[in-house]
Design goal:
With 150 residues, the chain is mainly β. The chain has a single domain, classed as YhcH/YjgK/YiaL (Jelly Rolls). It contains one helix and eleven strands; from the N terminus they run βαββββββββββ. It has a six-stranded antiparallel sheet with strand order 1-9-5-11-3-2, covered by helices on one side.
Length: 150
């Protein structure tokens, strides 16, 4: 897991060949004005962005998730939220992993990190995360999640 600001994104371009295109999109777009939905950035299924507007939820109501084939770059465009994070070492799965959607759900405790506009969190396969969590009271958030195929 990496947390930083978009102004420092060049530090991470060497991690994956598609990170340059991902961060060019995040830094070159009016993120708050993007409509909700999916945007193909390079090729469908290789690099795309999901734009979502939602109301954050209490931490207690969430379920940790993880992916196996995609890196998430989660970037808040408006509002703020907490995202829980934990390495998947001893976290039990709560059901079978959905390979078509590349998502599994897990039980366990996470460490919470606050993400605000202009900040991002990179989550790698094998890292559990609990997104969309409220800081105190639920609030409106617009977030872009760039999915990078590994």
């Amino acid at each position: 897991m990496i947390v930083d600001t978009l102004e420092n994104a060049d530090r991470y371009l060497g991690i994956h060949p598609l990170f340059k295109a991902a961060f060019d999109f995040l830094r070159g777009s009016d993120l708050a004005a993007l409509p909700d939905g999916s945007i193909s950035l390079v090729e469908p299924k290789k690099l795309y962005a999901n734009v979502n507007t939602y109301l954050t939820k209490p931490v207690e109501e969430g379920q940790m998730e993880a992916h196996r084939r995609y890196i998430d770059i989660q970037c808040v465009a408006a509002g703020e939220e907490q995202i829980g994070w934990v390495p998947l070492t001893d976290q039990p799965e709560t059901g079978p992993f959905d390979t078509d959607s590349d998502i599994g759900f897990y039980d366990g405790e996470t460490s919470l990190v606050t993400i605000r506009p202009g900040q991002f969190m990179i989550l790698f396969p094998g890292e559990g995360h609990l997104p969309c969590r409220a800081i105190g009271m639920p609030s409106h958030v617009k977030k872009i999640v760039v999915k990078v195929l590994v």
